[in-house]
Write a structure and sequence with these properties.
Two copies of one chain form a homodimer. The two termini of chain A are 34 Å apart. The first copy, chain A, is 24% helix and 21% strand. Chain A is an alpha+beta fold and 300 residues long. The N terminus of chain A is likely disordered. Chain A is globular.
Amino acid sequence: MSSVGTAATVAPDRYPTRLTDGEPTPLARVDPVVWGAAPGPVSPAAIEGYDREGFLAVDQLVPAGEAAELLTEAHRLAGAARGRDERWVREPAGDEVRSVFEVHRISERFAALVADDRLAGIARQLLGSDVAIHQSRINLKPGFGGKEFDWHSDFETWHAEDGLPAMRTVSISLALTPNFTYNGPLMIIPGSHRTFIPCLGATPDGHYRASLRRQEVGVPDHDVIARLAEESGIRVLTGAAGSATVFDSNCLHGSNSNISPFPRSNVFVVYNSVENPLAPPFAAPEPRPTFIADRDPVQV
Amino acid sequence: MSSVGTAATVAPDRYPTRLTDGEPTPLARVDPVVWGAAPGPVSPAAIEGYDREGFLAVDQLVPAGEAAELLTEAHRLAGAARGRDERWVREPAGDEVRSVFEVHRISERFAALVADDRLAGIARQLLGSDVAIHQSRINLKPGFGGKEFDWHSDFETWHAEDGLPAMRTVSISLALTPNFTYNGPLMIIPGSHRTFIPCLGATPDGHYRASLRRQEVGVPDHDVIARLAEESGIRVLTGAAGSATVFDSNCLHGSNSNISPFPRSNVFVVYNSVENPLAPPFAAPEPRPTFIADRDPVQV
C-alpha cells in the first residue's frame, strides 16, 4: 500500500472475518497486548501476567460497600426501561432485563465510575495512551435461569461490526455481586488473546438485535476453541463484590447458565485507546448503534 | 388408621405433592437418612457427614483406567440408539444423546458395575438392607452447549410419579470424565434432604417424556430453594474420572449448562431398599415406564 494515509484511506484488513468461503484458519495476533511501559496502578509482575494470559484478576478494585451502592444504582437503571429503548436488553426467553447499555451516559454514578482513576488508570497504563469509553453496560444475570454466553472474542465482533481497527482496548468487568463458580461467572481461556479466529458467515443486516440476546454469527470454530482449552485450560473468574477482571478484547471468553438463586451482576466498561478510533465496519453492511460502539466517545 | 396392613392397604401419604391448591409448605423429613449401623465400606465419620449433609464425595470409587473403559462402553451405548426406543433421551434443542436409561439391562459391563460391592456395598450399608436397582442411566452432558438441569428433589418425582413410598434409596453418580467447576458439575444444597418441598400443579398424563428433557411440573418453590441455599450454601461436586457422589434421594440438586469443550459424562445408579418396594404413584395418573422406575427390580 503506497497511498498516503488520510481519513478516507482504507487500511488493509489485518483480521479478516465473517468469511463466506474457505476454512477459518486461525491467525497470529499482530498487535501488541501491552502498549506502554509507563508506571501506573498495575505492577510490573501483573503487567507481565496480562501480556501472557490476556487478563488480570483484581481482588478488590472497589470496596464492598461501594460495590453495593453501584448494585443499587444498577437495579434502579434496570427498572427504568424506557418503552422500546434498545439499550435495555432482555433474557432470550423472558422479560427480565439482562443488560443495560451506555450506563455512563444515563447515570451520573456510572459516569463517575468509568472516569475513576482506579479503572481508567489501568486502561491508560496498559494501552499507553489516553482512553475513551467504547462501550459500557451493566449485566444482571438473574438467578434461577440466567442464560449462558457462548465462547467469543469481543474483538472479532467489534472489528467486523463496529470497525475497531486494532486490538487496543481494555475491558474491565467489575463484580457487583459475588461471582461464585456456580452462578455463571466469566470464564477465559488463558493465552487465547494471541490467536485471532476468523468466523464463518456474512453478517446479516440488523444482526446486533439478535446477537445481544444470543450470538449466531461471529461464533468461533469449536475445534479451535477445544484445542486452545486443551492446551491452556479454562480460568474461572470468581471473586467477591468489588473484585474485577481486566481483559484484552481478543480473549476467548464466555459463561455458563445460572440456575443458582444468586444473581451474577457486574458492570462492564471498555476503554479504547484514543489512537484507535472506529473505522467503518470491516465486515458488516452498516455500523451498529452508538450505544454498543460509541463513534463519538467520551474521553476520560 | 386401624386397618390391618396388607398389600392392598393404601398407606397415608406422608409426602403430599403436586398440590392443586394451597401453599406448598415445606415439611420435615419423617424418614431416617441412614437406615443401618452395620460395618461396611463407609467410615463412621463419612456416615455422620452423609446423615448431616445428605451426600458424600468419594475421591476415587474406581481407578481412572476403569472409568475410561466405562466411558468407552457409555459411548458405544449412546451410539446404539434403537429407532424410537425411549430409553435414549436427546438434548432439548438437538439430536445429541443426553441420557441412556436402564444400562444395567442393556450392557453386561454396566450390569457388573451396579452389582459391584464398591457401589452396592455402600448402598446396603447406608440403607441397612439388601438393595435392588431402581434406575440406572448414563448422562453424557456434551461440551459446547449441554443444558442445565434445574433444581429438584429426585424423591419428589419418584414419590409422585413412581410410587416410591419412603426416602430409602442411595444414588451414586460415578464420573466418567473429569467434573470441573465449569462443565456443568452436580451441585447440591447441603442439608436440603431434611426438608420435603411439595410442588404445585397436577401431573399431566405422559409427563415423563417432556420431563426427561426439561422438568416443568415437580419444580420446587424458588423462595424455599433460595432460603436453603442462603442458609447452607451450594456444594459443587468436582472430581477426576472415577470419583463419585453418593447422595440421598431428597437432596436438592441440579447442574448448570456446559459451554466448555469438555463433556461431563457420568453413570448414575439408584439403589432402593428391598423393604421399600414401589406402590402405585402417589400423585400421577399412571406409573412411568419401568426403564425409569423398575417395578420388578434386579436385586444386587
